[in-house]
Specification:
This protein has about 450 residues and is an alpha/beta fold. The chain has 2 domains: about 1-40 and about 175-435, no CATH class; about 50-150, Periplasmic binding protein-like II (D-Maltodextrin-Binding Protein, domain 2), CATH 3.40.190. Helices cover about 65% and strands about 5% of the residues. It is built from 17 helices and 6 strands. It has helices at about 1-15, 20-45, 80-85, 120-140, 145-150, 175-205, 210-215, 220-255, 260-270, 280-300, 305-330, 340-355, 355-360, 365-370, 380-385, 390-420, 430-435, and strands at about 50-55, 70-75, 95-100, 110, 160, 170. A 4-stranded mixed sheet has the order 2-1-3-4, with helices on one face. A two-stranded antiparallel sheet has the order 5-6. The relative contact order is 0.10.
């Protein structure tokens, strides 16, 4: 055990002292904080105000468009040809042309501009005119305004979970999906990033013949486990530092620019229609109700259970795959030869990532259950299920099987590693790997 501990120290200290580790530890939180902060800032400076001139030959839609914070509509009392030629001189950003209908209502409208109007402008115009057109058609068939207004009322859906004791709690499916996806992808990328580092480290030591000196004083299994655990601690250290530093950076920016952030949030709410005129106070209340529902859903999440399970699957998922990557590294002499062996090892991970949406769509279904039980897929698949709520017995069984899978695959990897680490100049086949697994001694 002391020898394994020495290898762990060597692997851990040699990597945390590298400039690349220090740079990425500092750069990672900055990038993650930028992902949170920059889009909000860009939203306030990138959306220039647009004034759209309306040429409505139909006479139906001149008043169909309500001004938004950065979109203004003004009728142009000009023919379309003159409007297209002079709209910039008159201070308009573009021309919205609604031609005279050949039958009842126009079938197509046109936007003329020397620049792209943007998706937000097009979507807003399309939604506004389709809504007004729908209203006109309903009026044509004799539907009164009260019925039309009632038809526009949307119905909110609340997802209520009933636990075994009969208690009810409201939950947000989308919020659960986002949390589960972030956790699952974190484990997926961690396994790939540090698993390949184990493989390359083994290849380097093997090709430089350093390993011959090392295994003269310890067993190949001790060397393999020391490298795997050492790199696991490096990854966990970096991940925890990323979380801590990102929280500090985002919190510091929020504190330093509290007033500006309030203005940005108000701007965003106005832009998305969450803050509107007092006459439509019902819609404002709905928006605040949705925000309150999200906050309530966040408060109901069992963070202790999710974080505990994340750390468990984070570590044991890596340890399992780290052993297999170490076995691959010991069997070859260069990165090129690893391709034939990496694919079978990584296919279960790829399947678990490809199954994120199906698992989230039915987190209690048979596919979700079995993917979260099989050791090669459970680290990713179980994390996408966790925010939706998983029975304790399923979590315990999944953990037990993952530990068992780790022991089994580590045993296989150790058998290959002890032979392959001293093999040089020959490309191994699957048949030879199978023989290595059964060598005695």
């Amino acid at each position: 055990m002391n020898k394994i501990w020495l290898i762990i120290q060597r692997e851990y200290l040699s990597r945390v002292r590298k400039k690349s580790f220090i740079v990425m530890t500092i750069l990672g939180p900055i990038l993650m904080a930028a992902v949170i902060i920059v889009p909000v800032y860009i939203a306030t400076v990138s959306d220039e105000s647009k004034i759209i001139g309306i040429v409505d030959e139909s006479g139906f839609f001149t008043d169909a468009f309500d001004d938004r914070d950065n979109i203004k509509f003004k009728p142009m009392h000009l023919e379309i040809d003159k409007a297209k030629l002079n709209y910039e001189e008159l201070g308009y950003s573009m021309v919205l042309y609604i031609p005279e209908p050949s039958y009842t209502y126009p079938e197509k409208i046109f936007i003329y501009s020397n620049k792209e109007p943007g998706m937000m402008v097009e979507n807003y115009i399309r939604a506004s005119i389709n809504d007004d057109l729908r209203t006109l058609r309903l009026k044509d068939v004799g539907v009164n305004n009260d019925v039309i207004s009632a038809m526009k009322t949307s119905i909110e859906i609340a997802s209520i979970k009933i636990n075994e004791s009969g208690e009810e709690e409201e939950r947000s499916v989308m919020l659960n999906f986002v949390i589960g996806t972030v956790l699952a992808l974190s484990i997926y990328f961690f396994i790939f990033l540090y698993g390949t580092q184990v493989m390359r480290g083994v290849i380097e030591e093997k090709t430089s013949r350093i390993v011959e000196v090392i295994i003269s004083s310890l067993k190949p299994f001790q060397l393999m486990m020391g490298k795997i655990i050492g790199l696991a601690l490096v990854g966990l250290t970096q991940f925890l530092l990323w979380v801590f530093l990102t929280t500090v950076i985002v919190g510091g920016v929020q504190f330093a620019f509290a007033s500006d952030i309030q203005q940005i949030e108000k701007y965003q709410m106005q832009k998305t229609g969450q803050i509107i005129d007092p006459a439509n106070q019902v819609e404002v209340n709905k928006s605040y109700d949705k925000a309150a529902q999200v906050m309530d859903s966040l408060s109901r999440i069992d963070y202790k259970l999710i974080i505990g399970c994340f750390i468990f699957y984070f570590l044991f998922g890596y340890l399992l795959y780290g052993a297999l990557f170490a076995a691959i590294g010991s069997a070859v002499d260069n990165d090129v030869d690893t391709q034939q062996f990496i694919l079978p090892v990584t296919v279960p991970l790829i399947i678990s990532i490809a199954s994120l949406q199906p698992v989230a769509n039915n987190p209690d279904g048979p596919i979700a259950f079995w993917l979260s039980m099989i050791p090669l897929t459970s680290p990713v698949s179980m994390m996408i299920r966790m925010p939706f709520g998983v029975p304790i017995w399923e979590i315990a069984l999944s953990m037990f099987l993952l530990i068992g899978g780790f022991i089994f695959f580590t045993w296989i990897a150790a058998k290959i590693y002890r032979v392959g680490i001293l093999m040089y100049g020959k490309k191994p086949t699957y048949k030879e790997l199978w023989k290595w697994m059964w060598y005695k001694g």
